[in-house]
Description:
Blueprint: E1 3-7, E2 10-14, H1 16-28, E3 33-40, E4 45-48, E5 58-63, E6 66-76, H2 81-100, E7 103-115
Parallel strand pairs: 6-7
Antiparallel strand pairs: 1-2, 3-4, 3-6, 5-6
Helix pairs in contact: 1-2
Amino acid sequence: xxxxxxxxxxxxxxxxxxxxxxxxxxxxxxxxxxxxxxxxxxxxxxxxxxxxxxxxxxxxxxxxxxxxxxxxxxxxxxxxxxxxxxxxxxxxxxxxxxxxxxxxxxxxxxxxxxxxxxx
Length: 119
Protein backbone atom coordinates (compact mmCIF):
# COMPACT_ATOMS: atom_id res chain seq x y z
CA UNK A 1 0.00 0.00 0.00
CA UNK A 2 1.59 3.29 -1.02
CA UNK A 3 2.08 6.19 1.37
CA UNK A 4 -0.39 9.05 1.08
CA UNK A 5 -0.21 12.66 2.12
CA UNK A 6 -3.47 14.56 1.99
CA UNK A 7 -3.43 18.34 2.14
CA UNK A 8 -5.80 21.12 1.15
CA UNK A 9 -4.59 20.99 -2.47
CA UNK A 10 -5.04 17.27 -3.03
CA UNK A 11 -3.39 13.92 -2.42
CA UNK A 12 0.24 12.93 -2.86
CA UNK A 13 0.85 9.20 -3.33
CA UNK A 14 4.36 7.81 -2.82
CA UNK A 15 4.80 4.23 -4.00
CA UNK A 16 6.62 1.58 -1.97
CA UNK A 17 9.39 1.14 -4.60
CA UNK A 18 10.21 4.86 -4.30
CA UNK A 19 10.43 4.58 -0.52
CA UNK A 20 12.59 1.44 -0.92
CA UNK A 21 14.94 3.30 -3.27
CA UNK A 22 15.40 6.13 -0.76
CA UNK A 23 15.97 3.63 2.06
CA UNK A 24 18.45 1.53 0.08
CA UNK A 25 20.48 4.58 -0.91
CA UNK A 26 20.64 5.73 2.71
CA UNK A 27 21.66 2.26 3.92
CA UNK A 28 24.39 1.87 1.29
CA UNK A 29 26.06 5.10 2.43
CA UNK A 30 26.59 3.70 5.93
CA UNK A 31 30.04 2.64 7.12
CA UNK A 32 30.62 -1.09 7.52
CA UNK A 33 28.07 -2.28 4.99
CA UNK A 34 29.16 -4.38 2.01
CA UNK A 35 25.77 -4.23 0.34
CA UNK A 36 22.11 -5.11 0.47
CA UNK A 37 20.99 -8.70 0.21
CA UNK A 38 18.05 -10.74 -0.89
CA UNK A 39 17.51 -13.88 1.15
CA UNK A 40 15.94 -16.87 -0.55
CA UNK A 41 14.09 -18.71 2.20
CA UNK A 42 13.46 -21.77 0.02
CA UNK A 43 17.14 -22.27 -0.77
CA UNK A 44 18.58 -20.72 2.40
CA UNK A 45 20.90 -18.60 0.25
CA UNK A 46 21.81 -14.95 0.50
CA UNK A 47 22.45 -12.99 -2.70
CA UNK A 48 24.42 -9.74 -2.64
CA UNK A 49 22.49 -7.31 -4.85
CA UNK A 50 23.99 -5.16 -7.58
CA UNK A 51 23.44 -1.40 -7.73
CA UNK A 52 20.42 -1.59 -10.06
CA UNK A 53 18.58 -4.12 -7.84
CA UNK A 54 19.13 -2.58 -4.41
CA UNK A 55 15.41 -2.03 -3.86
CA UNK A 56 14.95 -5.81 -3.64
CA UNK A 57 16.93 -5.78 -0.38
CA UNK A 58 14.35 -3.49 1.23
CA UNK A 59 10.76 -4.31 2.11
CA UNK A 60 8.34 -1.46 2.82
CA UNK A 61 5.09 -1.90 4.73
CA UNK A 62 2.86 1.18 4.73
CA UNK A 63 -0.13 1.62 7.04
CA UNK A 64 -1.82 4.98 6.60
CA UNK A 65 0.97 7.53 6.83
CA UNK A 66 3.27 5.29 8.93
CA UNK A 67 5.98 3.15 7.38
CA UNK A 68 7.87 0.09 8.56
CA UNK A 69 11.03 -0.63 6.59
CA UNK A 70 12.93 -3.94 6.58
CA UNK A 71 16.54 -3.67 5.35
CA UNK A 72 18.53 -6.85 4.56
CA UNK A 73 22.27 -6.17 4.74
CA UNK A 74 25.66 -7.82 4.39
CA UNK A 75 28.28 -6.34 6.72
CA UNK A 76 32.07 -6.28 6.62
CA UNK A 77 33.95 -8.66 8.86
CA UNK A 78 35.36 -7.11 12.04
CA UNK A 79 32.85 -4.28 12.42
CA UNK A 80 30.52 -3.83 15.37
CA UNK A 81 27.24 -5.07 13.96
CA UNK A 82 25.13 -3.27 16.56
CA UNK A 83 26.68 0.11 15.82
CA UNK A 84 26.47 -0.37 12.03
CA UNK A 85 22.81 -1.42 12.38
CA UNK A 86 21.97 1.56 14.59
CA UNK A 87 23.59 3.94 12.09
CA UNK A 88 21.54 2.40 9.28
CA UNK A 89 18.33 2.70 11.30
CA UNK A 90 18.93 6.38 12.03
CA UNK A 91 20.03 7.21 8.49
CA UNK A 92 17.14 5.40 6.78
CA UNK A 93 14.55 6.88 9.15
CA UNK A 94 15.88 10.43 8.70
CA UNK A 95 16.23 10.27 4.91
CA UNK A 96 12.83 8.67 4.25
CA UNK A 97 11.00 11.07 6.59
CA UNK A 98 12.79 14.08 5.11
CA UNK A 99 12.18 13.04 1.50
CA UNK A 100 8.56 11.89 1.82
CA UNK A 101 7.06 13.71 4.80
CA UNK A 102 5.70 10.38 6.05
CA UNK A 103 6.37 9.02 9.55
CA UNK A 104 8.72 6.03 9.74
CA UNK A 105 7.36 3.93 12.58
CA UNK A 106 10.19 1.39 12.57
CA UNK A 107 13.31 0.37 10.66
CA UNK A 108 14.27 -3.27 11.06
CA UNK A 109 17.81 -4.26 10.04
CA UNK A 110 18.29 -7.93 9.18
CA UNK A 111 21.96 -8.94 8.93
CA UNK A 112 22.00 -11.71 6.31
CA UNK A 113 25.75 -12.32 6.00
CA UNK A 114 29.27 -11.20 6.90
CA UNK A 115 31.89 -10.81 4.18
CA UNK A 116 35.63 -10.98 4.68
CA UNK A 117 37.78 -8.67 2.58
CA UNK A 118 40.39 -10.85 0.81
CA UNK A 119 43.10 -8.23 0.29
